[in-house]
């Protein structure tokens, strides 16, 4: 799978609707959800896929990351350091460029038409700084995303992200848990 396939997956309306189920459970059913098209300038500049407007008017910006089903049992998350590492084409990854307040990883089901679990954490300056300061301590993986693009990610465990962000600042749930309550 390359960048184009992943981008198509990220644009699927069914997956957006699934993320929204989790947001309504976390923030309340009376929230307003404003989505940015993946190809719109504001999404590309700010790295924000969705703005959740709480009932009291506070707005939260979220960048959504979709994991394919084959990664569902992994307890690690790829944090993008370089979105292109090819010489003369280097481009910093979303850890540097994303202005969203939260990152929300969602795992797609086998059919890739629903999100089956989420893990959301705040993308604060302190978190970014801590990851960058300690990046040599994390496994770094080169991912080939097609003919012209190579991404470098730091692979960080959920436990480490929770430790860095604080457990009360993270949210995790499965679709079954959200539907039960």
Describe the fold and architecture:
The protein has 181 residues and is of the alpha+beta class. It is built from 7 helices and 10 strands. The protein has a 6-stranded mixed β-sheet, with helices on both faces. Strands 5-4-9-8 form a 4-stranded antiparallel β-sheet. A hairpin with a 5-residue loop joins strand 2 and strand 3. The protein is globular, with a radius of gyration of 16 Å. The N and C termini lie far apart (36 Å). The relative contact order is 0.18.
Averaging pLDDT over every residue, what do you get?
A: 88
Order of the strands making up the biggest sheet: 1-2-3-6-7-10
Q: In angstroms, what separates the terminal alpha carbons?
A: 36 Å
Low-confidence stretches: none
How do the SSEs run, as a string of H and E?
A: HHEHEEEEHEEHEEHEH
Radius of gyration: 16 Å
Please give the count of helices. Answer: 7
Q: Estimate percent helicity.
A: 25-40%
Determine the strand fraction and express it as a percent band.
Answer: 25-35%
Main beta sheet: 6 strands, mixed
- How many strand elements? 10
Briefly characterize the structure:
31% of the residues lie in helices and 34% in strands. The chain is of the alpha+beta class and 181 residues long. The protein is globular, with a radius of gyration of 16 Å.
């Amino acid at each position: 799978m390359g960048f184009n396939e992943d981008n198509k997956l990220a644009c699927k309306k069914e997956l957006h609707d699934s993320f929204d189920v989790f947001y309504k459970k976390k923030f309340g059913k009376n929230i307003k959800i404003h989505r940015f098209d993946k190809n719109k300038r504001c999404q590309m500049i700010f790295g924000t896929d969705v703005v959740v407007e709480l009932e009291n008017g506070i707005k939260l910006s979220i960048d959504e990351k979709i994991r394919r089903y084959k990664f569902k049992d992994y307890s690690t998350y790829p944090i993008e350091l370089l979105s292109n590492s090819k010489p003369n084409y280097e481009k910093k990854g979303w850890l540097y460029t994303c202005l969203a307040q939260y990152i929300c990883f969602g795992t797609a089901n086998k059919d890739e038409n629903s999100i089956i679990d989420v893990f959301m954490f705040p993308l604060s300056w302190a978190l970014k700084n801590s990851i960058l300061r300690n990046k040599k301590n994390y496994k770094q993986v080169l991912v080939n995303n097609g003919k012209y693009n190579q991404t470098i990610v730091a692979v960080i465990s959920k436990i480490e992200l929770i430790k860095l962000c604080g457990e009360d600042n993270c949210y995790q749930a499965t679709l079954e848990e959200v539907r039960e309550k």
